[in-house]
Specification:
It holds the Pfam family zf-RVT. This is Os01g0352000 protein. InterPro entries: RVT-Znf (IPR026960). The protein is mainly α. It has two domains: 49 residues, no CATH class; 149 residues, no CATH class. It is 51% helix and 3% strand. Strands 1-2 form a two-stranded antiparallel ribbon. The longest helix has 28 residues.
Length: 238
Amino acid sequence: MRGTLGFRSLKPYATIDGSAGYKGRSPMRMGEFFQLWDEIHDVPLLPSADEIRWKLTNDGQFSVALAYDMFFMATENCPYSELLWRSRAPSRVRFFTWITLKNQCLTADNLAKRNWPHDDLCPLYQRQDEDCHHLFVGCDYMVAVWRIIRRWCSASFAIPADEENTLSDWWLATRRRFRTSYRTDFDSAFMLICWLIWKELNARVFQHVSKSPEQLAEDIKQEIAIWRVAGIFFQFHE
């Protein structure tokens, strides 16, 4: 241990102000050295050979199987994970939907937790503080967009703001009201609407441009047409 620290190889010299220094060692390296010294100088050294022990087992033996199991010790039951990851939506849209349903996308409340610059008010309507639930459920702008799309596809279903539920609970409950053959298309439409709402928010924040709910709804319709050509939609409104 003493040899690896290299303490004996440090050669003192006098600095300009008369204080002691060590050749070949920057102040940062010296600080790291003495920090390490403080942490290990009380560690008892035994004459026996060193051995590596794994703290997660009683016998200290490591195994790949136990390490693999460790990754799932804190897993939670997620009722929508299979629906989400098996949907036909593009990967980046599915991933965004995942963090949105987990309330982890970078809305104002999550930016505040990181001490990042932000504006508390929702950029879409400037009346309420922004968080995931407000943005994708309660925001008047989001409500207007959903109503336009609902009229356009001639469907009768409750939009997120109509029910006092989380976004994930609303999605799971609403998709069950559609015929089985339409549910996958509804999943993709739901993810697309959330994705383009998020892009609209970012356009307002970073590019200082904005669209009305009607304009964004037109963008959604055009994107649905593109996704239909790509084989993502099969039953959705022409």
